[in-house]
């Protein structure tokens, strides 16, 4: 296709720097405003990111997710994460190298294996929740981060007790703080990933953070109980590429950090949003705790789906065009990124009636609702790049929410809903999901259907 006929859709005329500044603070607002003005497809210009063509049309999104991945590069479009994740990260690769890493990472995330993490997730959540103070305003987001971090450390790294593990835990926490700090986010947007990587301070930090990870990899390679271990690091140590070679230390480091960064903050924010939405809808919260107590998981599923629809923690996914391509009725030039907007497609009134309302029932087929659509419910992106941890994250959200609502009741601190606040690349509740917690009468007997309880009952 000739580049000469390529044509970008309309977009705001303000300078790139201004568009970038607004995007960094109010990405969803900017997309809402542009969609109202320009329709389902519009162009944004973001510093260091080039040109973005944002779309919220389900047919176009389908075309992007099912299109030829060698022409629609996601890895290239995620370059901003390079300094933290490293060059072997599945998130940053394209073509054969992406497929080869993805194939290695998929088995540990398969349904059955993942369910085994249920007991671990339930006991970590229960222990944390029991420590949260009652009867006073309390921001849940940092607490949810503690829960999801512990789950990832134990499930992915197999981190347990002992001083060595404490050190690894502390260093991984520091790495995450760095990755999600606003300063780091600003530096990346303004300087670009390669220049950030060359900054002496960022090099020193990386070396310091990587040291305990490499030490743990070396120790684990020598472990005699590798075959019995269930954690993802141990599984990956035994995995081999198609040519039979094992993963190198560098590959392992980059994938482990990728799983940590991709899976910790996102899930914590999604859980914080679930609490924020539920405490403002007491009747839905009541229904949820009743159904959980009765051992029925359908409403819980729907609450998770509706939270991820109405408050997606990631607003967009990107695919960079390797060559000019006909997309959504126009030819887009090579080098631009086509950007399905998770936020905008989730607010389409033709797909989701009363789109701004929190209505988990919309996903309950037994009540006239519809199952989430592949191209209209996309909190985890789609196609060959769909989030590897999607099932893990939804399962984790269910387990943690089940423990929460069966032990505590939640009331909001402020009368008004919390606004969406952008931190680095995730969208969080402005006041960190501030709630007042109270013990439930049956607090001493957590939900009958929790995986932890089920395991205990079986053992008894
Ligand atoms: C609610 C929680 C989560 C959300 C909202 C989320 C969202 C996303 C999104 C939007 C993408 C990009 C998909 C695309 O480009 O089409 C992605 C990719 C990815 N996510 Fe997640 N994620 C979550 C949790 C997790 C967890 C728990 C893990 C692992 C432990 C994980 C690992 C990954 C990986 C490895 C990729 C890259 C896949 C690839 O490029 O092939 N995520 N995630």
**Number of DSSP helical runs:** 19
Sum up the overall morphology in one term.
globular
Pairing-aware structural class of the strands and helices?
alpha+beta
Distance between the termini: 67 Å
Strand order of the largest sheet: 1-2-8-5-3
Which stretches of 5+ consecutive residues score pLDDT under 50? 442-460
Mean pLDDT equals 90
Major sheet description: 5 strands, mixed
- How helix-rich are the residues, as a percent range? 40-55%
Radius of gyration: 22 Å
**What share of residues are in beta strands?**
5-15%
Say which molecules are bound, naming each kind only once. protoporphyrin IX containing FE
Tally of DSSP β-strands? 12
How would you describe this structure to a colleague?
With 460 residues, the chain is an alpha+beta fold. The chain has 19 helices and twelve strands. The protein has helices spanning 16-38, 58-66, 74-77, 82-85, 95-105, 111-115, 117-131, 140-157, 163-180, 182-191, 193-198, 200-222, 232-238, 249-279, 282-293, 298-310, 342-345, 390-407, 451-459, and strands at residues 41-46, 50-55, 72-73, 137-139, 319-321, 325-327, 330-332, 337-340, 408-412, 420-423, 426-429, 434-439. The longest helix is centred in the middle third of the chain and has 31 residues, at 249-279. It is globular. Residues 442-460 have low confidence and may be disordered. Protoporphyrin IX containing FE is lined by residues 74, 90-91, 102, 258-259, 262-263, 266-267, 270, 313-314, 317, 379-382, 385-389, 392-393. The site of protoporphyrin IX containing FE has 25 residues, from α14 and α18.
